[in-house]
Amino acid sequence: MDRLLAPFRDQLRRPPVLSPLTRHGIDHYRMEVCAAQVRLHADLPATPLWTYNGVYPGPTIEAFRGRPVAIEWVNALGVERHPIRTFIGYPTANETSQSRPGRDATGRWSEQGPLLRWVIGHLHGAAVPAQSDGWPDNAMFPGMSVTGCYPNPQRAALLWYHDHAMGQTAQNVYAGLAGLYVLRDDEEAALELPLGEHELPLLLQDRNLDLDAEGRPTGALLYKLDQPHGEFYGPYTLVNGTIWPFVEVSPVPYRLRIINGSNARFYRVTLVDDQDHDDQVDALTLIGNDGGLLPAPAPVRDAMLLGPGERVDIIADFGGYAGRRLMLRNDAPAPYPSGGAPSNEVVMQFRVTEGVTRGSVALPEALSPIDPIAIEASTVTRVITLEEDPAVPGMMRLNGKGFHDGVDEMPRLGDTEIWEFRNPTEDTHPMHLHLVAFQVLSRAHLDPGQPSSQPLAILNTERGWKDVVCCHPGQATRIAVRFGPFTGQYMYHCHILEHEDHDMMRPYVVVPPEMSM
Ligand code: C2O
Ligand code: CU
Ligand code: CU
Fold first, then answer.
1. Which of 40, 169, 216, 437 stands 20 to 30 A from 102 (CA)?
2. Please, what are the domains in the chain?
3. What percent of the chain has pLDDT over 70?
4. CA 338 to centroid of ligand 3, rounded, Å
5. In sequence order, what are the beta bridge partners of 267?
């Protein structure tokens, strides 16, 4: 592919940390959704985006366990139209025009109607009262605001906030509405993990760019979907809002906190030599994932799979690599796992400075204990089948139902349940539950005669507490969930944002135990 832009032109940006407006027992923040122009690459004109407080990614919130945060979410958009235009393509056979920049004359393309100027903020991974969870139907138009309260009762973890507006979460997040929320606690602080400039959050997203008549990128984002897939895959990988950035690092350990914030793309990442991409660098140790730290560090031997919404927490020890250039590499097919589209191999580059190596610094042997959920106590096993609607191409369902079809799952507060996601489709679906963290129990073949191409093993990156789980094709994936600490109406959905919007998302209600159903 002609990439049109050079990789490793720009420094990795670190999203600014937002200062609270007041700190009276509660940290108060204001997040204004507003249009802004942001440069995504040194050789590109600025890109019109929707942003939180004018920056992309949104400003980072640093929170502490047990200390509540209040965020006033404001729709401060004006009358300008949505920065993203949606093009649906019906490419001719074997064409994957979606993974090339520009609108592309091949195949048939049609533009979809204008999007709404409505938004609603959701804090992904948060144990939060239902009224602050960001209900998609309660999205706000310009001039409206709502204050969400986040009590932060949970352990330290990297959460992220993003838009969740009904029917257009995909385009709103694509337009720039995502940011990081770093929750810390004393237990984690006592471990003295790399901090400050040695802690790098890395938000991975893929995008496409529109071209002018001469074939030069205009700076405008392009959102085009190939049917029948109907999931967005773009040729440019951005880290913290910059296309293929580089970062200069010292030959010491760094903490890399990676989030897959893409709409639909899976990443399978390794650290390799910048020249010889088959030369895997043995510098990574896994310490945590969605729900925080794991019980003990584990060396990373294989590529790490990250579905949309998933996070990994890594120690990268650059100690033995002074003067070297390393690359974060992705080799996941798109769609995952059976797609043939280019894998967007380049993610970003690390330039390790020359200098004194302090020798590798030992990590603590134990990180944070995790008690397995007692599944003997589980009250019910619910089966949820992930389906394509045979009648409507591109429409997805859960147990044959969509978001507005009424509530079926009503766990009681404090109850433990087993949820089994059955996936007869061809795609891996990253299933996400709001409110709770869960544990992955098992994977099994749906039909022993037709085994899935994906392994059944639970990966190291899937141990501990998760809020997204990859449900592979041809498999039944089981999780254990203890519902709480709040009652109310929440939702669960596939985190491929195009699937979530159409309509692989369902409500569920946590009911008070005294209430008999
Ligand atoms: Cu990342 Cu419903 O959320
Ligand atoms: Cu969420
Ligand atoms: Cu899906």
1. 169
2. 21-189 (2.60.40.420), 196-352 (2.60.40.420), 375-510 (2.60.40.420)
3. 96
4. 14
5. 306
The closest of 308, 297, 219, 200 to 257, measured between CA atoms, is 200
126-146 pLDDT tens trace: 999 999 999 999 999 999 999
Are the C-beta atoms of 260 and 307 separated by less than 8 Å? yes
Query: Which two structure tokens, joined as six digits, stand for 460?
Result: 């190291």
Q: Is 137 left (phi over 0), alpha (psi -120 to 50) or beta?
A: alpha
Radius of gyration of the chain (CA): 22
Does pLDDT of 105 surpass 70? no
Sign of the alpha-carbon torsion through 13, 469, 148, 37: positive
SS3 97: helix
Beta strands in 145-282 (DSSP E): 145-150, 157-163, 178-184, 199-211, 217-226, 236-239, 242-243, 246-249, 253-260, 267-273
Q: Which atom of ligand 1 is nearest to the CA of 500?
A: 2
Distance CA 307, CA 290 (A): 11
- Centre of ligand 2 from the C-alpha of residue 121, in Å: 10
CA of 109 to the centre of ligand 1 (A): 30
pLDDT tens string 438-492: 999 999 999 988 878 899 999 999 999 999 999 999 999 999 999 999 999 999 9
- Please give the C-alpha separations between residue 308 and each of 66, 95, 293, 399, in angstroms, as whole numbers: 28, 25, 20, 22
